[in-house]
Amino acid sequence: MALDKVAKRAKIKRRIRKNVFGTSEQPRLSVFRSNKQIYAQVIDDNQGITLASASSYKNKATEGKSKSEVAAIVGKDVAEKAIKAGVSAVVFDRNGYQYHGRVKSLADGAREGGLKF
Predict the structure, then answer these.
(1) Please, which residues bridge with residue 41 across strands?
(2) Of 70, 68, 87, whose CA–CA distance to 29 is shortest?
(3) DSSP symbol at 97
(4) What residues pair up with 39 in beta bridges, in sequence order?
(5) Integer Cα distance of 56 and 61 in angstroms
(6) pLDDT tens, position by position, for the chain (117 residues)?
(7) Residues forming beta bridges with residue 93, ordered by sequence position
(8) Three-class SS state of 52
């Protein structure tokens, strides 16, 4: 039986999350993308808290830009907030999405912002 798109991504996500775990020293940078927006969170899985987050939702700096450019801006923004929170290195959680397009742009933006993967 063929899986639909959402079920297929959920299966890939479960497979990734078996190996990717955020600690206090190296939290997890999780990405979620919808058709219009993109969101990123830096998460400490040991304590179950979000250390930093950023999104394109209601972000004035992202108006009039392409989705990939917006993702890069969100990546820089989350990196800036994570560094303020005392995080310099993260584990990247692509959340079942292909490392391509907007997800890759966000990761590159976070690297530019100073985060180490």
Answers:
(1) 30, 53
(2) 87
(3) S
(4) 32, 55
(5) 9
(6) 577 988 999 999 999 888 888 888 899 999 999 999 999 999 999 999 999 999 999 988 888 999 999 999 999 999 999 999 999 999 999 999 999 999 999 999 999 999 998
(7) 30
(8) strand
What three-state secondary structure class fits 23? coil
- Tokens encoding 20: 């990717």
**Helices 102-112 and 67-84: crossing angle, nearest 10°?**
40
Helices (H), the chain: 5-17, 67-84, 102-112
Q: Report pLDDT for 52.
A: 96
**How confident is the model at residue 33, as a pLDDT?**
94
Instruction: Enter the tokens of residue 64.
Output: 């009039």
Q: Which CATH number fits domain 5-112: 3.30.70.1020, 3.20.20.80, 3.40.190.10, 3.30.420.100?
A: 3.30.420.100
CB atoms under 10 Å from CB of 64, counted, come to 6
